[in-house]
Amino acid sequence: MSERQTTGGGAAAAMTGRDRRDGLFLSLLAGLLVVLALVNSFSVTDEWRHRGKPLAFVEPLIWETSSIIVLMSMAPLFMALIRRVWPLDPPWWRTAIVYVPAGLAFSLTHVIGMGVLRAAAYAAGGDHYDAFAPLRDFVYEFRKDSLAFVGFVSLYVIWLLWRTPRAAVPAEPGAIEVRDGARRHFVPLSEVAFIEAAGNYVELHRGRTPILHRAPLAEMERQLQGQGFVRIHRSRIVQRAQISQVESKPSGDYVVRLADGRELAGSRRYRRPLLEP
Q1: What is the largest CA-CA distance in the chain?
Q2: What CA–CA distance (Å, rounded) separates 152 from 71?
Q3: Pick the CATH number of 175-275 from 2.40.50.1020, 3.40.630.10, 3.40.50.2000, 1.20.120.290
Q4: Which one of 90, 93, 211, 256 is most buried, by most CB atoms within 10 A?
């Protein structure tokens, strides 16, 4: 297998597969939201009728539909964030630093967006809706949106874990199986200098051109135990035999120099495993 075949065809196949999985996830999500919107619209209409204040079904339907449109518009962006910053990777506080502001942005965009859409829909029907009404009740909306954001992240994580096959390591003695479309290739572990996280994928670095491989870094670390690899960072695993020097920093972090001259940043959190024989 040439390196060009692996990095080109493998990456293209992986990206195409991911696009198909994301498209299916978005379709299922849209279907779920539509069902919930219809149920909620009927429920709201019924509640108002029992209160003695009849409400036209179209009004709660506009409320729910505007919410769906904004949520579906934001979904691809937050899916990309989840792939980029995997929520299950330790430590938890680093994940919180990313996802707490993301949840706030999610809610703020949702509240402003649905207010604008509702105002436009009411205006088209010759009526009036205050576009800033949801924003003025932001605390209430944020409580609901926080649950929606956690639910969305959880669903997409479960989806990726379910749809991403586990890595086969080793599929042959001392090799990693890399799928390139319908073909299977085997990369010798001895040729892999280090492995780096790329969302829900990893990059196998042998030579100067990385090979994209469909597997989470945590799964690779688990399956490479006893194979001469050590984790030096939350997003990086290195082959011990490729390490020529380790330079410590005052902060406790360090720099790992490989035999080919490349330098990799190491975290003090993973210093002990590196120093163990």
Answers
A1: 79
A2: 10
A3: 2.40.50.1020
A4: 211
Element (H, E) at 179: strand 175-180
| Confidence category of residue 250, pLDDT binned at 50, 70, 90 | confident
Contact 96, 87 (CB under 8 A): no
CB 206 within 8 A of CB 191: yes
> In this model, does residue 163 exceed pLDDT 80?
no
Whose CA is closest to 179, among 161, 164, 195? 164
Dist CA 11 CA 181 (whole Å): 10
**Tokens at residue 54, please?**
């009849």
Q: Which letter does DSSP use for residue 166 in this model?
A: P
Tell me how far apart the alpha carbons of residues 67 and 216 are, in angstroms, rounded to a whole number: 33
Question: Do residues 263 and 273 lie in contact, with contact meaning Cβ atoms separated by under 8 Å?
Answer: no
Q: Is the pLDDT of residue 143 over 90?
A: yes
Contacts (Cβ under 8 Å, ≥6 apart) of 266: 232, 233, 236, 246, 253, 254, 255, 256, 274
pLDDT of residue 174: 78
Distance between CA atoms of residues 54 and 18, nearest Å: 47
pLDDT in tens, 31-49: 999 999 999 999 999 988 8
- Whether pLDDT at 28 is above 80: yes
Bond into 101 cis (ω within 30): no
Span between the terminal Cα atoms of the chain, in Å: 34
The whole-angstrom separation of Cα 193 and Cα 123 is: 62
Q: Give the residue extent of every domain in the chain.
A: 3-163, 175-275
State residue 108's pLDDT score.
96
